[in-house]
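User: two proteins, same treatment. go.

Assistant:
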Amino acid sequence: MSESKHLPWARLPGYLPEAMWAGARRSRELTPVMAQRYRGRHQAALPSWHDGWELLVVFSGRGLLQADTTVPLGPAIAYLIPPRLVHRELSDADMDVLWIGLAGSLLDDLPPRLLRLDQARGLGALARQVWLCTERRASRVGVELDGLTRSLLGRALASGDAVPTPGPLPLDGSIEYLHRHYGRDLTIVDLARRFGCSERHFNRVFRQHTGVAPVRYLRRIRIENARKLMTCTQFSVAEVAALVGYDDPAYFSRVFRQETGAPPTRPLRVQRSR
């Protein structure tokens, strides 16, 4: 999409005026700046972009969202669109869409990419409440609107786990796979391929949800199981190393010491002294 147009929030018909916050301070953490709903065909000639984050919610109908990639639109999903991402919606039939422009410091930690969200947890119903509140432009509902928007963002992130497109990473499946097959010769490239994403995406999302890189997570699983084997069996260090995925006993010993602060012979000695 080589040509695009900039659409400032203040120039859109759904812009929310400061008068709605009369007598109160607008939230600096999160506030809606625009809310616009449209039911019909979506056939914009040119894509557009905004200065802030935009929440897109589809109430009915189906279509496509064209950005740096093309993703489906429908009642089951929504998207958080980052600032300055050129995009447009397309549909051959009627599609009921709500756009909410967002601003505030709570958005600063979001990854600057298209985020897919799951509406199965009531996101659509809460988005409809926000929209109905924004339609009361003659009333001083700004504080209420800020509160609803904060709940909406929390629900959105809880629903989608802020997973970048394309599609969510089956994180539970990858964790279970590591626990079941830690004794194999596993590589992150193979794991990412197994779960349908790039190595970079797999690393990023795995670290986001577990707090550690998948390589470190796998190492912890292996060492935890090695400690159990050395406590409950009479296997040698070399045998334990092989069982938990290390062909080189010397390398296994170094990793074991790094993780536990002690050499792998210590649990065996404790076992034999009883």
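Protein 2:
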Amino acid sequence: MDTAALSLLNDVARQGSFAEAARLLDRDPSAVSRAVADVEARVGIRIFHRSTRRLSLTEEGARYLARITPLIEALEDATEEARTAAGTPQGHVRLTCSVAYGVECLVPLLDDFRARYPDISLEMDLSDTPRDLIQGRFDLALRLAPAPKGDLISRKLSRTRYHVCVSPSWLEHNKAPGHPNELAGTSCLLQSLPDYRSQWRFRDRSGKVHDVPVQGALTLSSPLALRSAAQRGLGPALLADWLVKDQMKIGQLVALLDAYDVSATTFETGVWALYPSRSLMPRKARVLLDFLAERLGN
């Protein structure tokens, strides 16, 4: 039986519908439905319960998938290993990360990655809504957070430091604060995340932490929009170093209170690569991970 058809069963089971599986695979939903029905006819069992809202595995279907899934994965790994043993890595890799980080940090690396690995095609899903790696069939996800928890394997690519940034024009009309508490009466630019819109945390060189309540008339969901608003002189914004390093270098943005470590949550945030398995990671994904660690590490 065609292994692609068997692999399709897993895609449909993960997505819970023919339409979602078809969207993931860029195929027609009716073709996906026919392929599943063909497998069911060959095997002689009904693999999915069908309803108007969602598909679910039958008891027989669940047992069947449990038996064939390790075989499919082993065959795919063996095929990739054979293809790349005597040559460069090849295949299709899916990665997901936030919009701002993808635009600012990953897109500038694409030329070099393509030059180094011309036989790898890369699909980047940029979204500020965290994706499910297993359901979405992603090889890698990049998360901007403290140390991740859960079943996924993680590797820290870089540390993130935050800055309270303003434009030179803002400083022309406002006094720079000498202490974090002076921000309490300042109209700040806020990000629409619970931890970012209510208080910022500052840690001085002695290790003492100052929790400062913040307020402002503008709340924006996008870090890119926050940076743009800060550049226009609309107020101080809490922004990651990777988002403002170029603007600070050329003087478009200035860091306030830079003798302090600053964050909205914890001071140990970073950029983490997440992936489902260390031992079964395809070589095409491994070289992407190593490339990102090489280029993004600090």
